[in-house]
Every structure is written in C-alpha cells, then in structure tokens.
Design brief:
Oligomer: single chain
Keywords: Methylation, Ribonucleoprotein, Ribosomal protein, RNA-binding, rRNA-binding
GO molecular function: rRNA binding; structural constituent of ribosome
Organism: Salmonella enterica subsp. enterica serovar Montevideo str. S5-403
Number of helices: 8
Protein name: Multifunctional fusion protein
Radius of gyration: 27 Å
Subunit structure: Part of the 50S ribosomal subunit. Forms a cluster with proteins L14 and L19.
CATH architecture of the largest domain: Beta Barrel
Length: 365
C-alpha cells in the first residue's frame, strides 16, 4: 500500500470504553492528488507521485506549473513519491483520501523533528556527567576525551560530540492507528510524531527494518574473560540477548530505493547537456590547466574568464588543477568519467575541454 502526506495538527487524548486515556497525534490528511504514475517500461520501477494542499501561483516555478498542468491537477505544496505494490493501480488526476487507511493497524510516520539548537553531549547523546566533587570544579558536563594522541592524530568520523540537535528527518515506526475520520480527513495515531504543529508528515504501512548481529554497531571484542568474573559467559555485545544487540531473525521491509537504469541515466545526461548549450552555460575550450597547484593562479584565471560558479571537466584529471580548486568555494574539477546529472545542474557554468567532449560523446553514443 502507498503512503499519504498529511499535516500535523497537534496532540490530544481520547478515552476508550473502559475509561482508559490514550494520547494521540491528530494528522490532517487533505486529498492527495496523483500527478504522475511511473511504470516499469518507461521508468524502470512502479511508483505513484502525489501532491497535496495548495500553493500560490507566484510561488510555482515554470517546470512545476507545466508538470501540474499536464496532470490536470491544482498546484500543491510539493511532490512526494511512493512505490506501488503488485496489483496496485492509480491514474493521473485521481484523488486519494485517508479512507485508504481505514483497515490499517500500524503505520510508520516520517517528519522533520523540532530544532533544539546547539546542544552539549549530555543532552544530545545522553552522556553521563563527570564528578560533582573530588577536585572537579569546571568540567561537570564536558564530554571528556574525543580521541587518541599522535597515533592516529585525528578525531574519528561519527564521534559523538556537541552540535546541532534536532531539525532532521526522523521516522517513528509501528504507531497504532487509533481512529480514521474520513468525514473530517483526520488520522489519529497513538503517541507523538516528529515535527512541530503544522509541519508535513508522511505515513505509510511499513514494518521496521531490523538488524542482525552482523549489522549492528559495536565491538567484536569479548566483553570480559571467559571465567573468574562471577558473571555469565559472553562472547560479544552484539548478541541478541544484549540490549541494542542484533535480532536473531531480522524483519526486512520493502525497499523504497530507486535504481536508475543506464539508458535513463544516459538520457538524463543528454538532456542536461542539451539544455546547458541552449542556455549558453556550456563553454568548450581546447585546454584548461594551471602551471602550479596554486589556488591564486586558478582564481585569477577564472576571474579573467568572468567565471565564478563553475564546473571544470577535463579529459584526464589534472593534479595541479585539482589541487588548485580545492579551496575555491564554488569551483569543482572532474574528469569526463566523473560527471553526473546533479553536478551538471549545480553550477552556473560548465567548462569542458575538447578531450572531455570527445569522451562524453563516446559514452553517450
């Protein structure tokens, strides 16, 4: 079953027939309008694209306006895509209501959590505080050591430290559906969902992805010696009997990742390059290089060419050019084999050498 897009109204409570109070989150689900249906023949996978709500005409871009006009639906607040299961069929322009979830028992809800600003490790990662006494007078809530000494001489990626807390994509799994009010377009789920009042949330029928002991994070070292500790023998903290260990028979949900086949990928590159030529954003030069790996030399060369936000594509990666561009904020250097649709549209201008053009033509032939 596909998901739907709604708006978080807030939290309240309802009472069961036995008088038990249940905290619920109220989600308003305006009609989701189908703007596009994707199939295996044209797109390589089956999915439905929907929009909801309304958007001011002066806020709708021309590509969006054309897309909505082609579908024959009113411009909405955004576009969301859901994979289709076998046997599910929808048509462009169709309206989908919350009644679709009338028989659903549990849903996963995704939203953007509230931003909490800069937070320390005690609040952000639930670190324990240091000693309140015994000579500690200034370091009660500091994180402590963040690494080793000269070896390896760096802070490992992913180290839990102070920083921005919240304001990130969060999914809460397996929330009970308490009530579906089709007349008022409301869905009531048990418990809280991420985000502030009025934010967009996506809910779908989806089992949680569980991890086996081979997939959970943790050391493979034996926690303590086999005998003589007085505790039960243990070989790994990843064991299913440990808290935050792996699951013996992990459940596997439906995979929503999208695989783009080679034909579609090449077609996207062709379309983008053609549009760059039409907009005079593609510049072809015989050769592009710098004498030494100096940022100053490359910056001056780009200034002489009146280029600021630029992607430079060469036949073979020039080490001097690559090193010179590392400290320039809106400049990137790639060889012809390293281009992709996102990088081509991310810059105002694209500079390609003659060798790079030949290689790209061979790739897209």
């Amino acid at each position: 079953m596909i998901g739907l897009v709604g708006k978080k109204v807030g939290m309240t409570r309802i009472f069961t027939e036995d008088g038990v109070s249940i905290p619920v989150t109220v989600i308003e689900v305006e009609a989701n309008r189908v703007t596009q249906v994707k199939d295996l023949a044209n797109d390589g996978y089956r999915a439905v694209q929907v929009t909801t709500g309304a958007k001011k005409a002066n806020r709708v871009t021309k590509p969006e306006a054309g897309h909505f006009a082609k579908a024959g639906v009113e411009a909405g607040r955004g576009l969301w895509e859901f994979r289709l299961a076998e046997g599910e069929e929808y048509t462009v322009g169709q309206s989908i209501s919350v009644e679709l979830f009338a028989d659903v028992k549990k849903v996963d809800v995704t939203g953007t959590s509230k931003g909490k600003g800069f937070a320390g490790t005690v609040k952000r990662w639930n670190f324990r505080t240091q000693d309140a006494t015994h000579g500690n007078s200034l370091s009660h809530r500091v994180p402590g050591s963040i690494g080793q000494n000269q070896t390896p001489g760096k802070v490992f990626k992913g180290k839990k430290m102070a920083g921005q807390m919240g304001n990130e994509r969060v999914t809460v799994q397996s929330l009970d559906v308490v009530r579906v009010d089709a007349e008022r377009n409301l869905l009531l789920v048990k418990g809280g969902v991420p985000g502030a009042t009025g934010c967009e949330v996506v809910f779908r029928v989806q089992p949680r992805a569980q991890k086996t002991r081979a997939e959970v994070t943790g050391s493979g070292k034996k926690p303590w010696r086999q005998k003589g500790t007085g505790r039960a023998r243990s070989g790994s903290i990843k064991s299913p009997i440990w808290r935050s260990g792996g699951v013996t028979f992990a459940a596997r949900p439906q995979d929503h990742s999208q695989k783009v086949n080679k034909k579609m990928y090449r077609g996207a590159l062709k379309s983008i390059l053609s549009e760059l030529v039409r907009q005079d954003r593609l510049i072809v030069v015989e050769k592009f290089s710098v004498e030494a790996p100096k940022t100053k030399l490359l910056a001056q060369k780009l200034k002489d060419m009146a280029l600021e936000d630029v992607l430079i594509i060469t036949g073979e990666l020039d080490e001097n050019l690559f090193l010179a561009a590392r400290n320039l904020h809106k400049v990137d250097v790639r060889d012809a084999t390293g281009i992709d649709p996102v990088s081509l549209i991310a810059f105002d201008k694209v500079v390609m050498t003659a060798d790079a053009v030949k290689q790209v033509e061979e790739m897209l032939a």
